[in-house]
Amino acid sequence: MADDPLVIFTPSGKRGRVPAGTPVLEAARRLGVDLDSVCGGRGICSKCQVAPGKGAFSKHGVTVAEDALSGINAVEERYDRIRGLKPGRRLGCQAQIQSDVVIDVPPESQLHRQVIRKSATERVMVMDPAVRPFYVEVVEPDLDDPTGDFQRLSAALDEQWQITGLRADLEVLARIQTVLRKSAWKVTALVWDNGLEPPRLIDLVPGLLDGPVYGLAIDLGSTTIAGHLVALDDGRVLASSGLMNPQIRFGEDLMSRVSYSMMNEGGAAEMTTAVRDGLGQLAAVLADEAGVDPALIAEAVIVCNPVMHHLMLGIDPVELGQAPFAPATSDAMTLRAAEIGLQIAPAARTYVLPIIAGHVGADCAAVVLSEQPQKSEAPVLMVDVGTNAEIVLGDKTRVLACSSPTGPAFEGAQISSGQRAAPGAIERVRIDPVTREPRFRIIGVDEWSNEPGFDEAAKATGITGICGSGIIEAVAEMRMAGIVDPSGLIGSAEQVGTPRSIPQGRTHSYVLHDGTDAGGTLIAVTQGDIRAIQLAKSALFAGARLLMDEFGIETLDRVVLAGAFGAHISPLHALVLGMIPDCAVERVTSAGNAAGTGARIALCSRAARREIEDQVHRITRIETAIAPRFQEHFVAANAIPHATDPFTELQTQVTLPVVSYNTAGDGRARRRRK
C-alpha cells in the first residue's frame, strides 16, 4: 500500500513498501535482497546484521527518522552484551521497519560474498621505493659517552649507510631503547626517504631483517576499495583483496554523498569514519592473507577520486558539489598512515597521488602513470569506469581529462536482478539471434549454462543474479538478437518471437533464467534495467565525445578500457552498446585495474611520483558539468548504439537488426504517422 513504509536497501538499490512492523530480514527476502541468516531469525547467528541510515537521502527522496526502526529489543541487547555488535548495527531479524528507511547490507552480511575483480597485473618496474631496510650495529653508550640512543643510531646510519639528518616520530622514539638492548645493539632500521624531506625512521627490527619490507597500493573507489600488498624489494604482489566501501550506505554515487554531507550535520565526519574503518579492515585482511606482520608494512599509496580523497582526509566535500568544483588541495600529499585508519608500522607514511581537477581524481592520475598516454604517437582514449567514469584522451602533443557521472548500474547496482560480482552471478551472456534462446556463465563455474556439467557445478552457488559485466553483455546481446530496438525498448513475445519476453505492466522483460520451479529466482532484464544502462552509457559516451571535440578529432585510433569493467567486458559488446565512440574492435584493449597498477608503480618508485606530479600540471581538464555540448551528446547516445553516429567500424563486425517496438501500452506496434 502507498501508506506503507518505503525501505531501500544498499548497495543493491532494491526498494519496496512493506507493512509497518515488518522485520528487516523479512523485507529483504520479499525484495530479493542478499541478506544472510542461518538461525531462522532467532537472533543467534548475527549473520543478518544491517546498518540503518539516518537523516536526509536526497537521491532516494526520503528522510530517515531516528525511530525508523523499532527500538533495540532484549534479543539484541543479549547478543550485544555477550558477543558485541558494531556501533550502529542492528540484527535484521529483530529490527522492525516503522517508517521510511535506508538500510545498508554490509559485505559480511551478504550471502554471496563479493569477488574483488580488481586483481593485480604483472608490470616491469624500476624499483626505487621510499622505504628501505638498513642493518646497522650501534655503539653502546657508557659513562664516558652517554649520548642518546637515537643519536647513536643516527650516527651509525650516517657512518655505515650515509643517511644524514634522520628524524623520528614519538611512537618510534618510545621503542628505541628497548629494541636496541634486546638485540645487543644490532638492528635493522626501516627508513623512509622520499628524496624531498629529511629521512624518517619508520621502525626498528631486532637483528638482521630476514625478508623484505612491505607496502600497500590501494585503489579507494566509490563502491569498492581494492588493495595489493607489495614486497618492496622486487615489487611482487603477495596478496590482493578488497571490500565494498562502507560509505555506500550514505549513497551509491558521489553526489549523493556530497548531498548527505550538506543535509546532515556531521554527515561528512560519519563518512570519514566509515571509509577509514574500511581502509583499516582491508590492511588487516591483506596482512593476514599474506602472513605478514603489519608492523613490516611501512608505506601505503592511495589513489581515489576527489570526493573520496576529501572524505578520507576528513575534509568536507561540499565545495566539490557546486561550481567551480574546487578541491581543498590538489597536490600530492604525504601523511602518517595512522591518521587515516591504517594500523601498520608505527610511523608508516601514506602517499596520496595528486588530483587532476575537482571531478578528476588521483585515480585518473594513476591511470595516466600506468598507461602513459603522453608518449603515444596517435590519440588514445582511456576509460576507467566505476560509479564515476574518468576519461583521458591524449598523445605526445597534449593530454585531456574529464569525469562523467555514470552511476552504479555498470557494477550491478540498481538493476532488478543485479548484484555484486560473487559466485553464482551471471557474468557472461550470449543470445541466439534465430531462436532468441540465451546461454550464460556464472562466476565460479567454467561451463556455460547449455553445456554438460553446468547444472551440477552450479548447485554449489546457485544462480543468484546478474553482475555488471553480465547486464552489459545481456543488453548488447538483446540488441544484436533484435529483442531490443535502437531506442532501448524490449519487444513483446509476438514482436520478438520468443515466450521469454514477458509482460511487466506497460512494458516487457526478457527472462534469462527461471529457477522458480526449484525454489530459485527469476532473473530477467527489465525495461527499467535497460534505461539504467542507457543513462550510464550515455554519460560515458558524452564525456569521451567532449574530449574528442576539444582534441579536434572525429575518429579514434585506440581505446583502452581500464578498471574492473575493462577486464571483463568484450570490446564488441561495449561497442554494440555504444559505451565508447566507434573504433576498430581489435583496437579496443583492456588495461585491467590501471588505477591500482599506477598506485603500485608509485609505491615502488620515487621517480614515478615526481613524474606524475609534473604530468598532472600538463593535463587539460574539461568540466562536463558546464560543457555546452554534453547534453547534446548525452541525448544522442541514448540510442543503442547511437542515434546519429553510424558506427561504421562496428558495422564491419556485426549487422544490427532494424526493428522498432514503439508500443501504445498494450504490446501492439504503434503506427508511424506519415
From TrEMBL:
UniProt cross-references to InterPro entries, sorted A to Z: 2Fe-2S_ferredoxin-like_sf, 2Fe-2S_ferredoxin-type, Beta-grasp_dom_sf, Corrinoid_activation_enz, Raco-like_middle, Raco-like_middle_sf, RACo_C, RACo_linker
A Pfam family annotated for this UniProt entry: RACo_C_ter
Domain 2Fe-2S ferredoxin-type: 5-109
Transmembrane intervals: none
Example GO molecular function: iron-sulfur cluster binding
Domain of life: Bacteria
Protein name: Drug:proton antiporter
Organism ancestry: Bacteria, Pseudomonadati, Pseudomonadota, Alphaproteobacteria, Rhodobacterales
